[in-house]
Design brief:
Oligomer: heterodimer
Number of domains of chain A: 6
Structural class of chain A: alpha/beta
Strand content of chain B: 15-25%
Strand order of the largest sheet of chain B: 6-2-1-7-8-10-9
Number of strands of chain B: 10
Keywords (chain B): Methyltransferase, Transferase
Largest interface: A-B, 39 and 38 residues
Pfam families (chain B): CheR, CheR_N
CATH class of the largest domain in chain B: Alpha Beta
Organism (chain B): Bacillus badius
Helix content of chain B: 40-55%
Protein name (chain B): Chemotaxis protein methyltransferase CheR
Distance between the termini of chain A: 138 Å
Order of helices and strands of chain B: HHHHHHEHEHEHEEEEHEEE
InterPro entries (chain B): Bact_Chemotaxis_MeTrfase, CheR_C, CheR_MeTrfase, CheR_N, SAM-dependent_MTases_sf
């Protein structure tokens, strides 16, 4: 049954019950109304009966009043009231007659009517009697006749009243009964209706809420946060609920579809937004990256984190020598050992291959041992490995390898492609940037290095200059010393000259003396020899022996005298040298002749050797040469007890340039100790005081030999070992060279001589006796600085010229002046060797600035120091001076201190 | 180049290649000097150090750096000489006059607003530039409220700087520099020539504090409005350059001025972004953060 039908039935039933109850209630009310109406009528009738009674009473009272002689004035009123009461009684009887139509009552009313007429008649009589004044009759009539009627009437009305009251009571009883019944009926009815309605309602409510509940329970099951699945209502009925369920199901269906669609759209939008956000996130960071390693590290960190990779490495393509390699520059969770996978050749491994082909390589699934991603707790192989090239204009610049435990989803791959695609350009940009940066940095470094080097050079230059200055200073000092030395030397020379002269006298005296000595000695010797010869055979062997001793001692004495003579000659400069051609063989013969006998005598070997390659003839002084050799050889024999003495004549070796021949005298004698070697050639000194005593001789031989060798242009060398023997070597030059050597031996003297006369400085010392040392120094410096310097002043102010000239000339400067620019230039042209020019700016004819400009134009004056004199204090004026070509400026009035400082600066060379 | 030749001959008997060995020896020498004498040259520019060491080797007539090391460590006098070698004291008054001109026009206006001015002249060497700065500030009327801290690691040159006497022969050049640097008066007003020297008037040194400071090891000692350090860092390697730059950065007041040498730059330093250019050609920078 449909819901509508159910409701209709229910409501119709209720409606029926309402109608029924209306009829029942109406019927009951009518019954009640009837009962009440009867009671009311009786009540009215009872009232009328009462009225009759009351009015009769009033009539009788008024009548009695009249009878009792009332005051005149009241009689009217009493009569009136009596009349009225009588009227009322009649009216009441009439009404009662009309109302009460019951037979019993009608009889009574008729009786009453009759009585009323009777009473009226009586009344008339009474009245008539009253008028006639027959009181007694009246009273009698009143009290008897009237009263009797009245009594009767009252009796009848009482009867009426009783009847009426009885009817009322009956009716009231009836009515009470009816109402009691009605209440019962209503109660039963209400109970019945309540039950019926209850049943009907329960039935309807049950049937409606049951279906609703089913629907709502399904509907409440709907979770709106998951609009993609909605519950369905099972359709069991074909009523409205069934329709609702159907409609709901349809709605759920479309909602589900919509939700799905929306979800999909939302997902797509989210993906798109994610992609663009993440890409933007990556792309926006590029401009801040200006180093490739940082870029790579940042990139791999970022990209791995965003794409959910658990492992990542970044390779950069690099030129390594001739081959290109991919070098690992950054890693994410990279735990590979340092050597492995650090770099690949192009085409080597998947990384290399990826770079060569410029193609993404995806490995899914990954072989179990491919790589392991490590953490502190363990390691596991990834599920997916992606190797991607980052290219720019077709060239792969980098390769990025990523691995993940989860396979990369579509979106992640999309992101990676996009980002890696972008990376190429940025890597290229960064590479270029790095190149530029590197070049710039190199440039900067080179710049700094250049600066360093330049400063170092400057420093070295400075050091050199300092050294130079020191040297100069030293040179000056040494010059000074030399000068002093020269002075000393001159003094000494003078002394020496005096000495020489006296020594010469001595030597001459000595020479003369030895000559004087020799002459008697010679005769002594000759005589001693003659005696020793014993020509006359008259001498005893003893005497011969004496004579021989005299001879040999005399000979020794003569030798000694000769030696002394020689040395004296040498020292007196009187030894003469005569160069001639000397045959070497003659020298050999001489040596043999002289010393073979000695050798034989001493039983010492004597060898003379002449080496090959010697010139046959040398140019020297034969006599002196023989003398030297004789000295050397006799020394050799003197000190040689055993062994041999040899003379070796050969060509001088290369070490001694200019020397032609060497004569080496070698012995196996006692030798000379090293310390003695230094002074064996010195005159009057002997190696050992004991030697002369043991071996005899003056010890002058070597000194003489040395001097003679020197005269011959040669020299003597000695080598010796104590107890092993000595070697004396005489070197002699070719004569021409010897002559040159003689010439060259006095160059110093000439140089020393030249420096004479320049030493005037000490004289200045005396010029400023009252000044302090420092001031003196300063003055001296100024004079050294200014001495003979040509300083020009161009100024038209004579006082100024005078002051300057005076100040400068005081220090020995040569001052010239001109009074205007033109004159100044003329002056310069006439004297081009000016050292410094003071140029006043405000001068006639050609002002200072023009003059300076003109001077600078002239050849040879580009670097001439020109000091501008200006009275103006403005910076601009000064700048003009400098612009015109002035070297410096000085303000007027001139401060002398400043003037000298500036002169010193600009005269500094 | 006698030395390198000698080393080249030695090389044949060595297992290590020549260059590598040399670097090792060099590192050891510098480390030794640092450990023993406390002077840190370890972060100086290598080519420079090499050249100076070669120089010293030649002068001391040793053939190897190790040989020099022994001498240097055993003999403080030789260490002193080597120290002097490493301390390049090349400077001049108003060096690079355009720098001083730029300072006058672009930095002096900023200094006018400072009630007292502190200037640090790091690596002042013989002090020429310090006196130049004093003259400049004197002419600009700022010298009275200025303190110039002139520092160098070499006390010898500081002593020289304190004297304020410079060689007369250089004065022609200095005068030209002074004029080109926008000198407002006569240069000769500031000095008196005295025995081959130009003695600068003592009032110029009144506000200069000369003190020893080694940029390689010492720290900041004050806060400055201007720091001048020209052609000092060229002798340092990158590491030390960065250290020194950080030192300067922390020693500068906000908006303080840094002046460096014409061949130097802050482009590749870690503090690049802390400065803005006041005059990029004259290498004047202002601290901005």
């Amino acid at each position: 049954m449909k819901l509508r039908t159910k409701l209709y039935i229910g409501f119709a039933f209720l409606f029926g019950l309402f109608v029924l109850s209306y009829f029942i209630l109406t019927a009951m009310m009518n019954q009640l109304g009837q009962n009440t109406g009867v009671a009311m009528k009786n009540h009215q009738m009872m009232n009328l009966a009462n009225t009759i009674q009351d009015e009769l009473n009033i009539f009788s009272r008024e009548s009695r009043g009249l009878l009792s002689n009332p005051p005149e004035e009241l009689i009217g009123e009493l009569e009136k009231n009596r009349e009225e009461a009588l009227v009322n009684v009649r009216a009441a009887i009439a009404s009662l007659e009309k109302l009460d139509n019951r037979r019993q009552s009608q009889q009574l009313i008729q009786e009453l009517k009759r009585l009323g007429k009777e009473y009226s008649a009586l009344e008339k009589k009474t009245d008539a009697l009253a008028k006639m004044g027959e009181d007694k009759k009246l009273i009698k009539m009143f009290w008897y006749d009237s009263r009797e009627v009245r009594e009767e009437m009252t009796e009848i009305s009482k009867k009426l009243q009783a009847i009426q009251k009885k009817t009322i009571d009956q009716e009231l009883k009836k009515s009470a009964k009816t109402s009691k019944q009605t209440i019962h009926i209503i109660f039963a009815y209400i109970v019945a209706v309540f039950l019926i309605v209850l049943i009907v309602m329960t039935w309807i409510v049950r049937s409606i809420t049951g279906s609703l509940k089913k629907v709502t329970s399904v509907m409440t099951e709907v979770a709106f946060d998951h609009p993609d699945y909605l519950p369905r209502i099972e359709v069991t009925t074909k009523d409205e609920m069934g329709e609702i369920a159907l409609a709901f199901n349809a709605m759920a269906q479309s909602l589900e579809e919509h939700a799905l669609q929306e979800k999909q759209l939302k997902h797509e939008a989210e993906e798109r937004s994610w992609l663009s956000t993440k890409i933007a996130e990556v792309v926006h960071m590029y401009p801040g990256m200006d180093h490739l390693d940082a870029l790579a590290q940042w990139f791999i960190n970022k990209v791995a984190a965003i794409s959910g990779a658990d492992y990542g490495v970044f390779y950069i393509r690099e030129q390594e020598g001739t081959e290109e390699r991919l070098r690992k520059v950054a890693g994410y969770a990279d735990a590979q050992s340092s050597s492995e996978g650090q770099s690949f050749k192009l085409g080597e491994g998947i990384v290399g291959q990826c770079a060569m082909e410029n193609r993404i390589v995806s490995m899914d699934p990954v072989p179990a041992d491919y790589i392991k991603i490590q953490s502190g707790l363990g390691s596991a192989p990834p599920a997916h490995v992606l190797v991607m090239p980052a290219e720019f204009q077709g060239k792969v610049l980098a390769v990025i390898e990523l691995a993940s435990f989860q396979p990369f989803d579509r979106l992640q791959q999309l992101f990676l492609q996009e980002v890696v695609g972008n990376a190429g350009m940025n890597i290229n940009r960064t590479l270029n940037h790095m190149k530029v940066e590197k070049l710039l940095e190199e440039f900067q470094a080179v710049n700094e290095e250049l600066q360093t080097q330049s400063e170092e050079l400057q420093l070295q230059q400075e050091e050199l200059r300092t050294v130079n200055e020191q040297l100069e200073e030293q040179y000056e000092q040494s010059e000074q010393k030399t000068r002093e030395l020269e002075q000393i030397r001159q003094a000494l020379e003078e002394k020496a000259q005096q000495l020489t002269i006296s020594s010469q006298y001595k030597s001459e005296f000595l020479a003369n003396m030895s000559h004087e000595l020799r002459t008697p000695l010679n005769s002594l010797l000759i005589l001693a020899q003659m005696l020793a010869d014993n020509a006359e055979n008259n001498l005893t062997p003893e005497q011969i022996e004496y004579a021989t001793t005299i001879f040999s001692s005399g000979k020794d004495l003569l030798n000694m005298i000769n030696d002394i003579l020689d040395i004296a000659k040498v020292e007196a400069g009187k030894m003469e040298v005569v160069f001639e051609d000397v045959k070497v063989s003659d020298i050999k013969d001489f040596a043999e002749a002289q010393f073979l006998p000695v050798a034989r005598k001493k039983k010492v070997q004597f060898n003379i050797e002449v080496a090959a390659g010697l010139p046959e003839v040398i140019r020297t002084d034969k006599q002196r040469l023989q003398q030297i050799l004789k000295n050397l050889l006799s020394n050799a024999f003197k000190f040689t007890e055993h062994g041999a003495v040899s003379l070796l004549i050969q060509k001088a070796d290369d070490k001694h340039s200019g020397m032609e021949v060497s004569f080496a005298v070698k012995d196996t004698g006692i030798g000379i100790s090293e310390e003695n070697l230094t002074f064996i050639f010195e005159a009057f000194r002997q190696a050992d005081g004991t030697i002369s005593r043991k071996y005899g001789g003056t010890g002058l031989g070597l000194s003489i030999s040395k001097e003679m060798a020197h005269l011959l242009g040669g020299f003597i060398e000695v080598e010796s070992i104590v107890d092993d023997g000595s070697t004396f070597i005489l070197y002699l030059p070719d004569c021409h060279k010897a002559e040159q050597a003689e010439y060259l031996s006095y160059p110093l003297e000439a140089a020393a001589g030249k420096s004479e006369g320049t030493n005037e400085a000490p004289a200045d010392d005396l010029a400023f006796p009252s000044l302090s040392y420092e001031e003196k120094e300063e003055m001296m410096e100024r004079s050294t600085m200014l001495k003979s310097k040509k300083i020009f002043i161009v100024d038209d102010d004579m006082r100024n010229i005078f002051a300057l000239t005076a100040a400068l000339e005081n220090y020995g400067a040569e001052v010239k002046f001109a009074e205007n620019g033109r004159e100044g230039i003329e002056l310069l042209k006439e004297n081009p060797k000016a050292d410094l020019v003071f140029m006043d700016i405000m001068i006639p004819e050609m002002n200072g600035l023009e003059a300076i400009q003109a001077i600078r134009q002239m050849a040879g004056f580009e670097n001439l120091p020109i000091i501008a004199l200006t009275a103006k204090a403005m910076k601009e004026d000064r700048k003009q001076c400098i612009d015109a070509g002035a070297s410096d400026y000085i303000s007027k009035p001139i401060n002398l201190e400043q003037l000298f400082s500036i002169i010193q600066v600009w005269l500094y060379k | 180049m006698q030395v390198s030749k000698a080393l080249g001959q030695d090389e044949q008997n060595q297992c290590l290649p020549h260059k590598e060995l040399e670097t090792v020896e060099l590192t050891l020498l510098l480390e030794g000097i640092y450990r023993y004498y406390g002077v840190d040259f370890r972060n100086y520019a290598l080519p420079f150090i090499k050249r100076r060491i070669w120089n010293r080797m030649q002068a001391e007539q040793v053939k190897t750096i190790s040989g020099l090391q022994e001498l240097v460590l055993r003999c403080p006098a030789i260490m002193d000489r080597l120290f002097e070698d490493f301390s390049i004291n090349v400077t001049e008054m108003f060096r690079d006059p355009s720098f001083f001109l730029a300072f006058r026009t672009k930095v002096v206006p900023f200094l006018r607003n400072c009630p007292s001015i502190k200037i640090w002249h790091a690596g002042c060497s013989t002090g020429e530039e310090v006196y130049s700065m004093a003259i400049l500030l004197h002419e600009e009327g700022l010298y009275e409220r200025t303190t110039i801290y002139a520092t160098d690691m070499n006390t010898n040159v500081l002593g020289y700087a304190q004297n304020g006497e410079f060689p007369l022969r250089k004065m022609q050049l200095y005068t030209k520099n002074y004029l080109a640097a926008g000198g407002a008066r006569a240069f000769s007003e500031y000095y008196t020539a005295r025995q081959k020297k130009a003695a600068f008037h003592s009032f110029l040194a009144r506000n200069i504090v000369f003190s020893k400071h080694n940029l390689a090891v010492d720290r900041s000692f004050n806060e400055f409005h201007v720091i001048i350090c020209r052609n000092v860092m060229i002798y340092f390697n990158k590491l030390l350059q960065n250290r020194v730059h950080h030192l300067f950065h922390e020693s500068l007041v906000q908006s303080g001025i840094l002046g460096i040498g014409s061949k130097e730059g802050i482009k590749f330093m870690s503090i690049t972004n802390f400065y803005e250019e006041v005059d990029p050609f004259e290498r004047l920078y202002r601290k901005i953060q």
